[in-house]
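Notes on consecutive records. When two proteins share a document, each keeps its own sequence and its own token line. Never mix them. Below: protein one.
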Amino acid sequence: MKILQVNNFYNRGSTGKIVYDLNRYIIKKGHQSIVCYGRGPKTNDENVYKISTELEAKIHGLQTRIQGLEFSHSFFATNKLISIIKSEKPDVVHLHCLNCNFMNTYRTLDFLKKNKINTVLTLHAELMHTGGCGHAYDCQEWKTGCKNCVNFRVATGSKIFNRTAEAFDKMKKAFDGFDTVTIVAVSPWLSERAKQSPIMQNNKHLIIDNGINTDVFRPRNFENLKEKYNIPDTKIILHTTPDFLSDIKGGKFVLKLAERMKETVFVIVGFNGNNKDLPKNVIPIKHTQDKDEMAQFYSMADLTLLTSKRETFSMVCAESLCCGTPVVGFKAGGPETISIPEYSEFVEYGNIVELEKAVMMWLDKKSGVTKELVRKAGEKYSSEKMAENYIKLYRELSES
């Protein structure tokens, strides 16, 4: 088989690493693999193409802010992508995240549909079944056409034009009659949302968990971390995020909980605020790209805390469980539907009292669950299992 993947990044960020892992696994299994991506530095990896220049991406972003349509630009990058697809003639085109201003999504989907090319679209967010929102939260407008969007400035960056209803209609038109596309969601929660959208309700839907490198995310020795960051020998709660101060990630709830649990140490990896304002039992650490060090943080913690308002999957949840550390947090959509129930607990968003109760109950449980938890998490979240599920899907589409 020959598989061509398309994503905004390659080997960067969560989806970029997923594409990278899939690329390697496809080749390992004796198949041909091609990747087209739009943003970030060029790579020397064989058959991996950066289709957009950063200048064209910036122009795309400017056009979006002016015109209010996110997926309608990048003429040259889209031409390059379509040219590569025509030349390579892949058995399956696998689309991932198509945002970040690097291609004309409507035009690409129309090309794949008209040429009856087997296509897999993995949903990592809600962008593709709404009028452009990465997270629709409690809004229900996406179920009827996004005609009264009050969030268009966030969704598109446009300060003037609210064209979310037009974007919704264009996306619906792109999927209407697209008989060769399979929609893959990364969580049961996200799959149910996509099925409810008029854009995708007539397409085939599957669920495949995101995969992580379980050779990295496994129980690790962490004594060097305690010495490096002067972390005391006591109960430790870990919170990790690339943007602690974001309302979406809920950092304020972590600080509230720390104020209520003064005898417990809270380690925050990804803190980007003012250290002077922190409770004394909070240890702030800058965001790390070192996956080995991150696995050590998970291994060190007695509990990992999730406070996001919305997550379509939660790599933090999967990584923590693979390192043998239970997870407690708010119900945020994806996490509570992809976690291992007997090793995690989720309470209603914003309920700090119930969150504290759950945290207190779970703090002493890690030592009794680590070995069995690691085994179950490794079986569920490994990148090999994810890749095997996609290979199975590719084969079914190629042979149909």
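Protein two starts on the next line and is unrelated to protein one.
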Amino acid sequence: MKLIDRYGRKINYLRLSVTDRCNMRCQYCMPAHGVDKITHDDVLSYEDLYRISKAAVAIGIEKIRVTGGEPLVRKGIVPFLERLSSISGLKQLVLTTNGLMLDEMALDLKNAGVKHLNVSLDSLNAKTFAEITRGANLFKVLAGLAAAERVGLPIKINVVTMRGVNDHEIEQFAELTRDKSLAVRFIEYMPSLKKPGWQKLSVSGNEVLERLGQKYSLEAVDRQELAGPACEYRIPGAKGTIGVITPMTGHFCSSCNRIRVTSTGQARSCLFSDMGMNLKSVLASEDPLALQGALRHVVELKPDMHGVSADRDNHDAFAMSNIGG
């Protein structure tokens, strides 16, 4: 079954947030004071999250990415992932994490059916990393990456590139792909929090490629089925790949294939759009067809493109951890 929106895009990807809580405080993701606390009753149960996932797969979703906050901080996450991976028709279960708990959980995640990990890592310098994350330990994350590599979990490293903060590390990150089968993706800074002067932090995907092109002769890599929005390249002879994700300067909205559901049951069709619906009342009906219908409605609400660019931010400010990134 195919799920097609009104602009002819095939929607086959669900980003499912299981918590808004996180054990980091990244500057671009949440305010310094953190996010407003929500009660236990506000967060969907694993049973409700499973019902949403099953309904989504029934109407055409083929890939589910579990996100947060930090998904690994939620108690019981591994059995939940194992249950998700058993949904008939789901082709790919993946997870985004900050890596702080990977050292002790990597093998459990693989055994639960997770096919690959996206790890947020914005600096390879301990001091810079601590500044970006407001205090997190880089070496703990690196130990987690090593553990994931040992158990055979494919890894993508997400780098939010910020001018004057970590953009001097672009080449260093690229070098990681020479000897390891890593996918390093450079992501343009997105002004979710709408900090004054955020434009000064922006480094375009084209600039990243131009800088890398001065040192390497990059080869384009064909996109695979269920691939994300990155344009991918490879240093000749390298084991891994390099990608750029350009939500600000090179909108990929025309090929966007995703919807998202927050940990509180808000289904959204676009990260930068308030269009969506609260699934809690539908979940209360315990009617799987009604839930499928609600998700189809969210797809119908999907805009042709978001309204945010390098010089425009006409959205309401939000903490990325509340939405699921």
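For the record: The CA atoms of residues 197 and 260 lie 28 Å apart.
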